[in-house]
Specification:
The protein is built from ten helices and five strands; from the N terminus they run E-H-H-E-H-H-E-H-E-H-E-H-H-H-H. By secondary structure, the protein is mainly α. It has one domain: NAD(P)-binding Rossmann-like Domain (Rossmann fold).
Length: 192
């Protein structure tokens, strides 16, 4: 084996000791300690996660307990492009590389963007405390994943993971896809 390419989580979530960050940090450290040549890609939120919110968005709301925390969502295709570049040796980047989309947006801004494209009003609601827990439980989350999502969104609300990284360009030579382009390509998911 010449090298391993691993997809992890944005370094800010590891530094914040977020629940999801801790597991990724342990796996990253294990790979680093192995001595095997490696590239660890560390993306933040995926644009594709917005597609899972489509049923809620069609109801005119995005419920996410993130306050006005911004996320530089990355298109999963950009993550794949980075992995392909590293795995096929068209990029010689090794080590840890944070990757993100080119701009950070709050869920309020995303709601406005989708509203403008679909022609109906969508608002962002950011519940707190027990109301946040209940909103996630209503989607079927429970156990450790419920705790992880509450922790993740609380970190976003505090500004964790808002940094825009240049890793996609560094690895692939291409700019990352924009949220506007992603939404335009996938708008049918959000239309009533």
């Amino acid at each position: 084996m010449k090298s391993i390419t691993r997809i992890s989580i944005d370094s800010e979530f590891i530094q914040a000791k977020a629940i999801l960050g801790l597991g990724h940090a342990a796996a990253d450290q294990h790979l680093i300690a192995s001595g095997i040549a490696h590239t660890i890609l560390r993306p933040g939120g995926f644009m594709q996660n917005l597609l899972a919110m489509a049923p809620m968005i069609k109801q005119g709301v995005i419920v996410a307990p993130t306050a006005e925390g911004a996320v530089p969502f990355i298109d999963a295709r950009d993550i794949a492009d980075c992995a392909v570049a590293v795995l096929t040796a068209s990029s010689d980047v090794r080590g840890i590389v944070d990757i993100s989309g080119p701009e950070a947006f709050t869920f309020s801004e995303i709601a406005d963007k989708i509203s403008n494209l679909v022609g109906y009003s969508i608002k962002h609601v950011s519940p707190v405390g027990e109301e946040a827990r209940q909103s996630f439980m209503a989607t079927g989350l429970d156990g450790w994943m419920l705790d992880a999502m509450l922790d993740d969104t609380a970190n976003v609300a505090r500004g964790v993971g808002a940094t825009i990284h240049k890793g996609v360009k560094h690895i692939t030579g291409n700019e990352p896809r924009t949220l506007d382009t992603f939404l335009e390509e996938h708008i049918h998911y959000f239309q009533k």
